[in-house]
Amino acid sequence: MKSVTATALAEEIGERLKQARLNRDLTQSEVAQLAGIARKTVLNAEKGKVQLDIMIAILMALDLTQQIDLFLPKQEISPLQLAKLQGKKRQRASGQRRNKDEETPEW
């Protein structure tokens, strides 16, 4: 699938959206109304020309949001990235140093 262009992949996803809509026996207008978008936006999505937030709205209207985990599984943080995020570990606590001459309070 590495030889497929981004445009071709977007068009394929658009076709799949269209087929999902047809499988649910919904018109573009009905999906648009459920998603809160214009019918032309649904048409463009089915051509593979859609913004991510619009695509998610259409997936929600088609009750396909559970498919997102299959499409793009949650990514765990790699040990290398985790080490970079932690940065340098503190060697000692910061704060004011006390003079040895200061009296220790008696409790």
From TrEMBL:
GO MF annotation, one: DNA binding
InterPro entries according to UniProt: Cro/C1-type_HTH, Lambda_DNA-bd_dom_sf
SUPFAM superfamilies, per the entry: lambda repressor-like DNA-binding domains
Superkingdom, taxonomy of origin: Bacteria
Region (Disordered): 83-107
Residue stretches of biased makeup (Basic and acidic residues): 98-107
Gene3D superfamilies membership: lambda repressor-like DNA-binding domains
Pfam families: HTH_3
Comp. bias regions, Basic residues: 86-97
All residue ranges annotated as the HTH cro/C1-type domain in the record: 17-70
SMART domains membership: HTH_XRE
Name of the protein: Helix-turn-helix domain-containing protein
Organism field: Shewanella holmiensis
Source species taxonomy: Bacteria, Pseudomonadati, Pseudomonadota, Gammaproteobacteria, Alteromonadales
